[in-house]
Input
Amino acid sequence: MTKPLPAKAVSACPHDCPSTCALDVEILPDGRIGRLRGAPDNAYTAGVVCAKVARYAERLYHPDRLTRPLRRVGAKGEGRFEEISWDAALDLVAERFLAAEAECGAESVWPYHYAGTMGLVQRDSIHRFRHAKGYSRQFDSFCTNMAWTGYVAGTGRLAGPDPREMAHADQIVIWGTNPVATQVNVMTHAVAARKIRGARIVVVDVYRTETMRQADVGLVIQPGSDAALACAIMHVLFRDGLADRDYLDKYTDCPAELDAHLSTRTPEWAAAITGLDAGAIEAVARQIGTVKRTYFRLGYGFTRSRNGAVSMHAATSIAAVTGCWQYEGGGAFHNNGAIYELDKTMIEAPELRRPGIRALDQSQIGRILTGDAAALNGGPPVKAMLIQNTNPVSVCPEQALVKRGFCREDLFVCVHEQFMTETARMADLVLPATQFLEHDDIYKGGGHQYLLFGPKLTEAPGEARENLFVLNELARRLGAADHPGFHMTAREHVDWMLRNSGYGTLAELEAGRWKDLQPDFRTAHYLDGFGHRDGRYHFRVDWGRDPAPNKPEGEPMGPWRSMPSLPDYWPSVEAADAEHPFRLVTAPARSFLNSSFTESEIGRRKEGRPEVWLTVADAARAGVSDGDRVRMGNRRGTVTLHARVVDGPTPGTVISEGIWPNDAFEDGQGINTLTGADPVAPYGGAAYHDTAVWIRPA
Output
């Protein structure tokens, strides 16, 4: 008898990577999920998906999946729980939330979430829940603020040239991102341009990444020095007649002023800041100036610094000086978030939002839970939390404070999770959550232009339930379920959003597999004007007052008044000093995605162990050798890990890849023990890649 072939279904990757890959999902004859592949007929995914998602069945059927609600019976963090029913668990959450509200007011309850799923229904329905009850809001600051603020400061809009145009470029500049590890589809299109057009790939980063190893030109610079490199490149473009003067006069705000300002930002000046050779800066500047079809692919990594917004704006400005926006395969792309004009009012219920409710900064959760009055915005202490889609006890900065806060006996924490994460271990109640192939949702791709539906394709193990179920059931128990959004399924939410956004129906989206929302060429390349009111690209920025995609209420943050108004190097980083002679970058690991996939045995074997990478000279300076146990620390704490001697970074720069769980470190202190939560100018954010440390033999 011929063995039946596996069936195939369509889905979308839910993870926090701008690719949001379109997937072909193998369904085995017994109904289980097999291998996941990139959909070959999706022009951006182009049949390619990262290795960790390809073997997603390992996560779905992992023996450590949570399958029953659990109530804590031991000490906080001890990991002792007992099974209870869903009804008893939800009743307990409602009871404790009502008690917190009675004691300290509704703002003492903080629903806390982030991007463990990028699905718009399962991720964002928590806002409808918080608004219905008047609970504390959340200011999202982990990831995007510096990047989005810097890009939009120039363009006026969070959108750019079609990412598929990389394949039509004659040169791709990949700046501050490592797509081999974090967004493999960028490499798909960059390598296609190299094969078809002979395109040159230039990579700018702070160490020799796997992406840089595939490049024609690799520029390894000091962390936080990106704006100096960008300014020196623009200096050469103006000096050598490579700036497009006609384009500048037509499309930009103050080209003559910028030219004069950059007259002293020479390659020699930038070499002293970046660690590059001045000749290397000259060479790449001329290459950028003479290749019109240059596509700048600007990442997030280089903006996770205290001067990140300024760095992004400076790097984006190069494309305006060359005028490469005019050409197919040219321009500067970061994220396409502005093209998705989606009506999410049924999901989020903004009309229920009550005036005056505080917004708590997610990055400052350690300060908030330990009673810092400034972090609490003058409001009551946080007494109860519901946590979905994030793992703050691993991923948040200032981990010593975070852990101390979660140890509070007067704090009730309910965590809705797929695995017993370190945050779940600190909870009073743990609820089992579905994974993306076990529920319905819709996804948009910041790194491309598609809207994709991900249907439920398999049953969840045990009693795992989707986010929407938990939020709807809690709203009912808390007397807050009047809004119609609390009575809709995920599919109904998606259909409502599509219809009210003018994008047809869910049935039509499923029939077409995805919807391409890429604007036309002239719009995407700003040939009819940039997004600012005057229609021009802005070299001059009014930091702290200009609009931004995620602008907090109230005064700007950090030392925003000292930000340079024109592109320039702004030395606001956490600088090395005699006590802390090294600067640490906590870069992503290829096998992990933040704290997701760290449960994978394959991934752990590939990554090895927590390490800090140093140059030969820096290892000698610290008195350590390759493979040694070392201690690394600063005023925030100390971690113990192993040294690896490499040739990747510049002198004084050390790298630690991956957010390993805290318990992967022998003293239980993870890498974010060392990172700071001080908000970055002008609109907040966490400077994960901007940390001064000392290193000593353990």
